[in-house]
Fold each of these.
Amino acid sequence: MEKDQDKVLTEVTSGEYKYGFVTDIETEVIPKGLTEDVVRLISAKKEEPEWMLEFRLKAFRHWLTMKMPTWAHLTIPEIDFQEIIYYAAPVQKKGPDSLSDVDPELLKTFDKLGIPLEEQKHLTGVAVDAVMDSISVKTTFRETLAEMGIIFCSFSEAVREHPTLVQKYLASVVPYTDNFFATLNSAVFSDGSFCYIPKGVRCPMELSTYFRINTSNTGQFERTLLIADEESYVSYLEGCTAPMRDENQLHAAVVEIIAERGAEVKYSTVQNWYPGDKNGKGGIYNFVTKRGICKGDDSKISWTQVETGSAVTWKYPSCILRGNNSTGEFYSVAVTNNYQQADTGTKMIHIGKNTKSTIVSKGISAGFGQNSYRGLVKVLGKAEGARNFSQCDSLLLGDKCGAHTFPYIEVDNPTAIVEHEATTSRIGEDQIFYCNQRGISTEDAIGLIVNGYAREVINKLPMEFAVEAQKLLQISLEGSVG
Amino acid sequence: MLQINELRAAIDDKEILKGLTLEVKPGEIHAIMGPNGSGKSTLANVLTGRDIATVTHGSIIFEGRNLLEMSPEERAREGIFLSFQYPIEIPGVSMVNFMKTAINEQRKHRGLDPLSASEFLRQMREKKELVEIDSALTNRSVNEGFSGGEKKKNEIFQMAMLEPRLAVLDETDSGLDIDALRIVANGVNKIRRPDTSVIVITHYQRLLEYIIPDYVHVLYDGRIVRSAGPELALELEERGYDWIRKEADITEESWTTDQK
Amino acid sequence: MDYRPEVIDRLSSMFATGRDTFLKDSPELFNRYRESAFGDFLHLGIPDRKNEAYKYTNLEKFLNHQYDDYYFPRPEDFREAERFHCEVEDLDVWNMVLLNGFFPNGEKGLVMLPGGIWVGSMRYAVKQFPALVEKHYNRYIEDGNDGLIPLNTALASDGLFIYAPKNTVYTKPIQIVNLLHSDKDIFVQDRNLVVVEEGAQLSLLSCDHAISPQRFLTNTITEVYVGRNARFEIIRVQNQHNNSGKITHTFIHQERDSYASSNNVSLHGGLVRNATWHHLGGENSETHSYGLFLADKEQHIANFVKVDHTAPNCNSTQLFKGVLDDKSSGAFNGRIMVHKDAQKTNAFQSNNNIILSETARMDTKPQLEIYADDVKCSHGATVGQLDENALFYLRSRGIDAREARLMLMFGFAHEVIQNIPIEALRERIDDLVHKRLRGELSRCASCAVQCN
């Protein structure tokens, strides 16, 4: 039976990437390489105000003094930052107000990706901001949302139309000096989504951003800023894909969330960047800085991520629990197959009184994949009554992959209760046999078991996406298993 | 011996006991029955001083003293014993050391010298037999790795060692098979001296076939809604709690109509 | 400001001035490694927060101090040591005293115990068993990042040597008392080697005491070879005063079918850092790493453990617990590493800590690094308080709150102590822990030394 299982696992690892096509569209690019002039040019192309350019230049100058971090459990060949294109935009009429202004090729692309931009076609209750390479193509349902005072638009528009809000919150959670990739992003970020939920408003639909890398040799550097004012609620989802290419492409994004008193933000990610082929060729290098602050009392930020793509994933969506009684959550499923590598986890920083955090991380390694959980739970001296529970499990499919757990727990308060548990194991032969005995094939059994294993996290996704995520999980792992 | 008067208690601002009155005289056995969520366990907590529930009104007098002003250990030394519904596992603390400390604290409270090692061991042996507890269990850490039945027997064994004046048995029958139930109940009967009072908190009638109560009270929605002799337990067994619920609710509704 | 360049200067001059002494008085084998080891030390420097293994341990307080010149004992130094007498009630041991990392001179330099096990001074061992020492000395060191390890190799001139030839068994524990006594502040480097050959068995009890109030810092390396089907146990009781720092590096290398356990009980000492490497180099082996510390005042106690599964079918456990009061701080840094071919590994790691005061602090890093799939590995870590439910349970039986807390703390600690295989010693350590928890001095009853 073991042999049978090995065979199935080999099949499992030959799953095809379904989003690897390229859109043939006229694209405006700034030639590769990064200099101060390129930063100025990006800013000029976006017709940015002076303060925005200043911010970029400060970041760029600081970035020149920094080195790429090496502490993660990742093997990354040296990246030549002068070989990357920092700005690429599909050519289209400025500010497509109606759908007819959007290039039909683009519409087709997003259709193919399952993200129709025609509002009537779209999943009900989801507003989408679609970003291709460096710019936002279209944001749906803007008017509907605007009636409630909700601002949901591309980052570039926000800089133009809501400068006070952007200036107040930009880099307030992730300062431009934060880390190598966040600093790079601060210098060259091209677009992204901006969202503001006013006081007391429950956002009636899921807000969603879909990121697509299209042009070859480009890096994608988007920036998302999400502000939930007092007593508001929003659920936000991002998805991402890229074409299959032989070379590696860089993605370095920054997400900042601010939750004011009593606000609740749910942030979900289904990350499916191109993972490279089965020999480890190509794929996206995904270096992302995501951080939220529970600024006010009784606020809550919940991160859910399903990470199936990218050749390399380096990301730690975190919560700064500053308000009293605030809550942070992190639910993660990360799959590494073939030669994928992931070093991902979270940081929960307990500052306010009676703050709570929950971490559930499920790692799945197959093929030659390396999957690491890295997390920090820090309880500061004044954080009376802090509570944390972390559960980090790893599942190994095959004997050539690796699963690693690196939790850091720092406690400086005697009333804190911090608990961390982790297990590492492979799918039990007895579980498979039990399924076999009930007439389920070994490959179906593995599919079932993996899905069961990830369910706790998948269930945290908005319902429409939970099904998608589950399918994705199967595709990225199961190949013929379905 | 014990007077509970108009007792109100809340957990996290939610009132659980809503004016409970009960008197227990020396040597009496009272059964408190009621559906889930009626406040039975809260009553046990309040009697023994677990600070989960806050007393907002009323009084509890035990042997002429205000029980509510006493710490859990003082109440224990005064002779109140709780058989826990879910006995706690305490790894690393041996049963022997645990029992010896408890007994000597109680003796100190009564102005007695600590028990000699041999006398203590003799008592341990004797009481173990009484509740038919496996000798090996007392060599282990408190409740650690005990089965559900062993934990309950261990509670009764401790009761035998500490010889309380008032024993509160909180759902002692839950999770016991019929043999274990019989052993536990017989243990209680053997331990009991004529002036020992017992409050049996239970959902089912079956324990009361062995520990025969003088009074049966039905606790519903934080109050005692009915009190009678042992026959009430049988009636509850046959008819369930629904009729009590209806009866109690009707009373409530009639109040509202009256006020309109 | 970075204190380290100055300390490196001081150590460089200690090495330079010590050269005359050790080149003359210490074995050629030791001297052979010194220059290159000191070079390695200069290259690596003193570990600081940037070194993951020292992320939560600051050595400054004990390293940044003007210690006396390179220490080499004079014969009269041992007189004080001879007065020292340690006796554990009902515990029958064979007992030997090291002073400041050196064995007393004289005939007892190396002795054979009944059963054929040799115990004594490394300096003598190099002469008597040159091939054996050569085969094992400096062979099991693993961490290439910790400058303190080559520093020991560069500076050490003596230490404990134990050799259990094939199939020898010594039924009593061998007790080594590490005494620190000096009228000057000294930096001690002792170097120990334990070779347990195929089928042999031994237990080692190592007790640390500082008997004069001077500032001491000890940097110890112990290399242990556990042969096929051999069995080795080490129990350390660390009871130095708080003006004293103790850093240990223990490398346990195991062959197939072997068993090893390490148990560190840290009671007193201003800075204690125990690093233990368990290398499971052969199939079917078993290894256990235990640690307990009770810290108060401004103590810092750190445990670093790495269990390296390089062979299939091995089992390992790590259980470390700490109780922290006052301004003390603790750190745990544990790793289970399962290599690619180490299938059928069972590895377990647990770290639990109780913080008693506002100003105490605990940092813990339990880690798993796994490259084989047919494994069962788990770990858990907690930082918290005593269990409220357990506390109430004890109180409901009439035990007062203070006593109940002590009982729970004792129970918490006992879970580590219960793994000590020798009953009399287990009881003795239970008793030391009890007294430590009650704030009483935990010195041994018959000990002439008034250490706390």
Amino acid sequence: MSRAEATAAPAAFVPVASDLLRRRHWALWSAYFFLGLFCVFFLAPPVYMLVTSLKTSQEIAALEGSPWLIREPTLANYAALLGSPTFLNFFKNSFMVAIIVVSVTMVISTLAAFSLARMRFLGSTVLATGVFLTYLIPETLLFIPMFQIFTWLRDVTGIEFINRWWILCIVYPTLTVPFCTWILIGYFSSIPKELDEAAIVDGASTLQILFKVFLPVALPGLIAATIFAFTVSWAQFLYPLAFTTSIDQLVLPVGIVTNLIKGDVFNWGQIMAGALLTAAPPVLIYAFLMDYYIAGLTAGATKG
Amino acid sequence: MAQAAGGAYRERVVARGGSLARRRAWIAFFLCLPLILLVLALVVYPAFYSLHLATLNKSMTRFVGLANFTFLFKRETFWMVVEQSVIFAVSAVIFKALIGFLLAHLVHRLPDKGQRKWRGMLLVPWVIPPAMSTLVWWWMYEPSYSALNWLLRSVGLEAVPWLGDPYWARFSVILVNVWYGAPFFMIMYLAALKSVPAELYEAADIDGANAFQKLIYVTLPMLRNIIAVTVLFSLIVTFANFDIVRILTAGGPRDMTHVFATWAFKLGIESNDIPLGACVSLFMFPILGAAAIFILRDVHRRSRELAGVTG
């Protein structure tokens, strides 16, 4: 408003207005300049990942010219990976773990968040706080006692837990459930109370209120929580590194780090192709659902 | 007579209401039960169990009290790990916060329709699984093929032994962490900047405030809470970081880049000394405790608001 008035102002004010405009212009261009600089810094590694993945081993080893350019682009690295049963098995394990963890997480968090956002029971406020604190406990603190607990469970029950891919489905919810519950509490409690009162008047049961009122209304929150759970379980590195070792039990991140590096032989083209394929699912989700992704990221803190 | 009947009726209603409330409380509790079981069995129990593990001998057959701790205190490596963990976490968080703050301001200054595109590009490092982006950093640091050294040489600078020299290696792991984490700060601050009412800046403009004064007297006070929360979160996460150091250096050269998490992994899982590993990872507790106290205050305020809204 003020800017529009300034440009349409009488002749006497024109020099001031154009000075202001010039200053705004300059500020804008300097912003673009610095943002461009940071974009180069932020995007150089993924770009270099792509560049390397499209090179032949000979070209990588040649050490001629710029390493940032490709002279003979090839898809051989991707073909080799996608034709390798080992790599496809990593993919399968990762997908299985992610799908199971996301389902388990969403069931547990939705039920708990519904209860904590709308109902009261002895200790429910303590629990809501506790959930948040749980989210702060890093996995690096828990992996050693967990390892020992699973070893002990094997001795007692005779079931092998360590070195089975599905153990990750038991462990990952500790990373996903607290945060998802927390952001869902935020979404659920922003739903007007009149909505569930109306449903109660219509004779809806508690579960009907959850499924017919809360889930549809809080759909953006559910999507954000699902994305969070997926990306966390897809990217997790410490637990699979500690708990799984056999090649057929590995998930993608660990499989690529431990398996494509054989002794001192580094097949960098394939490693980068594998890294890119592993990064692809979360990046694609981000590209298509950016607003939900960011809503999930910021919901945890800005609502506090 | 009528009064008595009315009283009995009211009593019945109250009793019914009481049992209904009790039933609702039970339903509420059962809905939370999976969450409670998960947290108790896989977070609370392991956390306390690691306290117990830390007091056992290597074969976990004998109680040795604090012997593991005194053993650690006598090792030079332990103090190096403490030092490096603190250097790593503090410097990385400072740079992430500064870069994030700067970027948020720059993006906020752009016209609305351009913001989405820039924000989308700048958040990419945060979206890629850290283990995978660390791999490409490793490849860029690789001594004989280093793409970074190629760039340095092409502008006439000396090649840098990124991971070969202990001090450069410390710098390199911090650089990767800053690269990965700064976009998160940007997103947080950008969301917060958007919630600052424009009237405040207009009022400051009328009072003749310059850009720096607006930053100090309007933006920073309005963003104080979110800055505190993000810095605290990031401090915890960075202090407990594992992926980056593990993949880039695995603690080397000469154990100079080990942080608590990677050293605990090396001792506990790789060297099979679970009690000692548990012992090392326990040193992440103090920072957690301090953070928890700060955050609890915040959460309490929020649950009070929540109670106010619903009750």
Amino acid sequence: MASSHDADGNGITRRKSLAALAGVGALGLAGCTSDSGGDGSDGSSGDGSESLSGDIRISGSSTVYPVAQEVTRQFSEQHSEVDFNLTRDGSGGGFNNVFIPGDSDMNNASRPITENELQRCRDNGIEPVEFFLAQDALTVVVNNEADFIDSISLEDLGTIWSPDTKPETWADVNSDWPDEPFDLYGPASTSGTYDYFIEAVIGETEADQDIREDFEGTEEDDLIAQGVSGNQYALGYLPFAYYTNNPDSVKALSLSEGGSEPVEPSLEGAQSGNYPLARPLFTYGHMGKIQEKNHLQEFIRYYINEADEDYIAQDIGYVPSSSDMVEANLTALEEAIAGEYEYSA
Amino acid sequence: MATEETTSDQLGQSTALRIQQLKGQLFEVALVAATLVGIVSLLVLFAQISNDAFRPRTASSTWFLVYFGTLVAPTAAFTLYARRRPAVRTANALAFAAVFGGLLLSFVTYVVVDALSPYDVFIYAFFASLPPVLVLAYDRTTDERTYTGPLIPVSIIVGVGVAALVDGPISGPLGVAAEWIMYFGLVTVPAALLVAWLTASRRGRRTGAVAGGVVAAGGLAVAVASIAAGVDASLPIVVFSAFAVPTGYVTWWSVKTNPEGRVGIAGPFVILGGVLLGASLVDRLGIESPDSYLTPTLILESWDGLTASNAGVYPQIVGSIIIVGFMAVLAFPVGIGAAIYLEEYAPDTGLRGRLATLLEVNISNLAGVPSVVYGLLGLALFRRTLGFGTGIVVSAAGTLGLLILPIVIVSTQEALRSVPNDLRQGSYGMGASRWQTLREVVLPEAIPGTLTGTILALARAIGETAPLVIIAVATTKYSPPSGLFSSATALPLQIFAASANAKPEFRHGVVPAAAVVLLVLMLLMNATAIVIRNKYGRTN
């Protein structure tokens, strides 16, 4: 049952008249409250570009989800006949459950595709086309009352979190710090953020675990921030996007690496490569479907061009890609359309 | 003084008595505390959610005064007036059901039909309803009763099959006709037939035909007026047929049959008028209303993950309604059928009896299986085995249908079990067969209980998140599902995703507001269940 009869012009008047009905029917729920600009926001359907239609399924990382959400929203305002379908399954979950079985057109990932996933893609006849989108900076945070610390080195962070050393108090790591026990918060082990943090900060360990286990692991950034703001001697790490949207709740530490000058967490620092904890975010396209679907090509072109825009930094809190990366992505897209792309790590 | 004279023995006895009493009182206090723990914590939770969603503290006090004057005070006065007069109360209840049921019905019909395309829905409705109507007409004219009964369900299935075959070729040429004609056929024609039938059974055939004709003519008049005013006629037609017609009919019927209580009809209009008057006053006088997150934008627009005031969940609401509606179509016949077999037909003894007992035990256990497991079942069944696409409406509805199936079976069994056995014996004694007894005696008695249980199961299904995540139902879509095989989306998924949004106004504003929307959907279902139960409870 395709909705081919749905004329676009009707949508607005219908919605308006529906608004009148809802205003009555919702009975004081919607009726009593102020309408903060309900109309007008969806009236901007572009002319001349209505020829694109079809569906696009995007699966994968919940870290990349905010970017995908904003870009698809903008694209669907211009091309109302393109039907988007976003799921949040996590990078690995998206690859394993949706992308590799051939059910989605694109899979977002907050890490590069693994050897194993690549192999299984190819076994299913799928060539993943890698597009670099943005970077996510990790922010190490302490309590607002923690006056004794403004910056920390990656090496000290490694000592604090490593299962081999497992210091009990701050003074165990640095004698300038108070003799108070640590209270540690971080993402749960199912998160891509956790994987990245371990690799960047701890590396290989002698123990058979990746990280000390006496920390509060949670999927919710909100809970990490709450935990850290509740104890003067707490320490945790968060995506920069969360910190930049909630800057008052916790204090961010500057980071140094190998005795260098400490760098404040900022998007500029991450973009220039000075800030040590920045990880790349990708989206992987299905080459066969890119060749097949005209609207998917157009959307990916839009997506990688938008990844360079300022709102990625200002509104979402990620490091936008650079014009060089956009060029590289466009080349990859052209190769994929021609069917000549081959992924190499 | 009496205590001095009592012996130590008596004293011991009365102490024991007092301890006994104290024990009893303590037990009662503990029970009251247990009751309050749940209710109070739920109330606190709801209060917090509504506070975050509505933010009443951002409103000026004049705003509260205006709505107190236009809405709260008149409603309270009317309720006080109606409380003492049973006739008024009856009319009031009827008018409430007609007005708000009508509004709800028009809203749901319009958004669902609009999402699925009115042409397709019309084709399916037409082919599914024409054969049984023909069979019924044949039945009436010839008195042939042997085959017509079983023929009705068969003809519906055949009709749906025919519709599926001809949908492609017909929907193209049909697209020439305006959309409102489809709505006229879908809503106005059934409303006219219903009014004609109801009036005919009470006032004779001729009056019935006139009443039906008036409704149909009214629908046409509304269409002509809307087109003349330059508005799309579809929604006015739906509102006229599903809201104005039932309201008008109930008003007319109350005035005719219950002249004492006719003031009661005003009840729902006092509330609606209060809301509208308050809104226009607030707008006219520029009074500061609460900076609520629960706005028309939230209900009528699509999602925006960056600007909280722009975020809407219209596709998700319609998606949830379509999934749950189709789920009901799938699960209810199967569940009710299974319950009837287990309760009325399955033998108690022998090998088949033991098999039936085994089934019943398993079904009771299935009702408690975690919903994630049903998600995995749906994934394995619909995606891997049947090869349906990822996260489409059919898979979502099927998975949730499996989830509520045990609940439907168990509640229907309970309802059937509560029908007194004397009724069955009486029916058998009058020579009725088992099927006749079931159809004429047992099922009508069991309807209220069955409907209550099944609608509560619907309310459970609409909030399910985990199974939908497993079968990869979309979190964000910008248009509602356009058919049963198009990809679905559901409100709880978007709430879950938004609760991880980096911006605090999403976590503490949009999420509670969307949760209120979900709760309202659920409460509306429960209210429907209660209304239906009360209605059948009264007539029987």
Amino acid sequence: MLKQSLLSLALATGLSTAAHAESVNILMEGVPDTEYVKTLLPEFTKETGIEVNLEVVNYAEMHTKLVPQLLASKGSYSAIVVDFYWVGEFTKAGWLAPLDDMIKADNFDTSVYVPKMMDLVGQVDGVTYMLPFYNYAMGLLYRTDLLEDEANKAAYLEATGMELAPPKTWGEYLEQVKFFTKDGMHGVVNQGLRPDPIAMEWSNYLFANGGEFHDADWNATLNTPAGVAALEQYKTNVNEYGPLGSASFSFDEAFNVMAQGQAYSYITYNFFRTAIDDPSQSTVAGKVEIMPVPGQEPGVGASLNGAWGWAIPKSSPNPEAAWTFLKWVESKKIAKERAMQGGSPTRIDVFDDADLNAKFDYMGAMKDMLLTSHNFPVFTYTPQLVEVLGRELSLAVADEATPADALAAVEAEMNELAKKDGKQK
Amino acid sequence: MNQSKTMEAADRRFGWFMSAPSLALLLAVILFPVFWALFTSVHDYTLIAPNFDTFTGAENYISAIQDPAFRHSLGLTAFFVAAVVLFEFLLGFIVALMLNSVERFKPIYYGILLCPLLMNPVIVGLIWRMFLHPSLGIVNYLLTVVGFEPVNWLGSTQMAIWTIIMVDIWHQVSFMIVLLLAGLSAMPKEPYEAARVDGARVYQSFFYITLPLMMPVIIVTLLIRMIFAVKTYDLIYIMTRGGPGVATDLVSYSIYRTAFVSLNVGEASAMSAILLGFILLLTVYLYRYMRSLT
């Protein structure tokens, strides 16, 4: 009897190992979108027999964990997720495997992605290295209850001669920031901590003034009227219309000010739109909406784009299984299921899905944000540019450099980096 | 005579034998990385192209020294170290003297004092960042309750470095207290008794007995604390990232950025070597001074 049960046990274990022989290991960041993927994994294992092991760590650890694995000839990660910051570095170092052959062999359609997504975390110089995973474009969070308040409407009309409504242009938005700074309320809350919070937030100001980081030949175009105006406005917002100390706020602290109802507006990552409706962390649930950062003209968006992509490293121990996973997780069905849980889409067909739009009425605004967004310069030295930009912007906000001098310093270093990277001839 | 010599040799051999494992370990984890870093500092070694193909000589050192941001970090770090060590020493010595004369509940005071020291600097940074939030933090709330204006703790260039100094003192002062207290309790009682018989006042015993006898302990404590303070990185990373502007850009954080953001490990190693040079000079000077006392 004992022998028999031992034998059946052995057989059962043997069989189950045989059935689940293959496994895919992926390093991911501990964010909501990773959680949504996690809930769907049993479905993948059932369909393909491949086990998926997610190693979830926080952002600060990811780069340090990835690099040694990518340098090795056989690493332990089958697939990885890549922040747009690292795209230049990873492709320049030759760590990512091109996906074009697999895409072609399986007829995987990449035209369904928002083109800006493919530019940011899809293709580099015509080669597809990644499939866009989720986007974190920045948008303008604003208080709808304050805009609808009759007393505010009348006062705003009297003060500016304009109707109080979601701002159609950047100029109108700045007027509203000024108007709402009264009675202990702040017109805006900024994330002035260096390097990435301030660098990312200010990029929206640059685009809103019609500026860009560089021209077609990668010559930096920051010390320009648009750049200087953007930095003057940023400085004024932090120092005059924002709460005390926002020059050192990271996004969580700035979000808390917004969530505690102390500010009219906050330019931030799209995932905070879901968070602001959570009553456990917000006193203004249901009173905040998101829209693309307005530009110089109505309909022109000035949002900064941001995204993560799925990739297969050259050091992947099992690229075929990794590709099986990638095409499953990025299929319309699974991409939609992730979005239905609150995930942030990258595919146009998911953005346009009727069920999704019925569930989240701000999905249209999210799509607009992405379609009209601008990309941050992606090259080998993106992290270094963010560092330099963060330092100089922070100096200008602290009144230790004039906006023009600060931007001239960024320009000089950016040109040098672009030359070093071979982008600028 | 001969026998004692062989015994001495045997003792020495045994001594080497016993310390060999730890020496080997120290060699592997301290000496090797130091030499590796020195080797890296004279090469063009980046994380994009991690190889020793290009020998650059002193180039990394020159570009580090010519970099105004690095020089600013060095100066700021010197100021920070001087400030924290001085304040922690004064505060620590006063508390240690007070505790030394306490008879009852000593372990309880010890326990309370050691609490901050047991905490990870990252946690300390996070907690204080929350406490010091200008509009939602408890510190400014309490200040406004008693009628003060809220303070811009981390967002003002004048204030931020002092805020970091204050948090560091809160975190590290107990280290000073514990070490100085250990020194005080090991002091001989006789000189004090003799002084009392001779009619010495309290401050006279302090300046003519306590201070001179404590000097070696004080020097060692200051030295250890200085070296630790030079390495301050966690608080900056969590609380300010070197900002606002460059107001809190301490040298360790600046080196970290050169290595892991700019990916320029060669220049970061050169910066570390320069820092190591300063620390060595300081150590040698203080060690010599201590030797001259004894």
